[in-house]
Target: 3-oxoacyl-ACP reductase FabG
Amino acid sequence: MSRSALVTGGNRGIGLAVAQQLQAAGDSVALTYRSGEPPAGFLGVQCDITDSDQVDAAFTHVEQEQGTVEVLVANAGMTQDQLLALMSEDAFSSVLDTNLTGAFRVAKRAVRGMMRQRSGRIILVSSVVGMLGSAGQANYAAAKSGMVGFARSLARELGSRNITVNVVAPGFVDTAMTADLGEDRRNEIIANVPLGRLAQPAEIASVVRFLASPEAGYVTGALIPVDGGLGMGH
Model:
């Protein structure tokens, strides 16, 4: 049976790959985007996840068009890198507001319908940086690490309602964000990855699709790295 799925930040990169794979698996897929135009073939909803009213309006629109959200993928995020000594308070708080509090906002709105239906899947897209740390990314690492504690708390809260909550932690992925790093930095990163390459967005999406599937019904509170071995041991 086709389910109603929502992917935040689904207009490019990992989010778009997730939307495509969920749709290929038979789900009705909506995606949020903050700017630009949504990709064709999906229900696109413009939404800034730092605004609770916009989050509520986005969910209401999705519910009207394709029913209660049964699969939520919290993927929207941002970076604002700077060494701690030079990082402004706004740069720190804005990254947490988008990446971590944004996940809180969408998850809180999603669980209303999931609890009524006594079923649901919530998948948070974190990062290997949340486990390893990264110089110049104290704000990003704090937000991505915080997702793990948040998800595991929700897994304990919602398990009795047949709602699973899991975290996927990608490593470095071949997206527009990593393309901006420059060849030297990309080569430096790849040299530290045991598999010797960047991930493709579809490889992250495949794990998300599994966690959203009926086959993952007994998986909750898990942190699954998809990082080519970069963060092993964490």
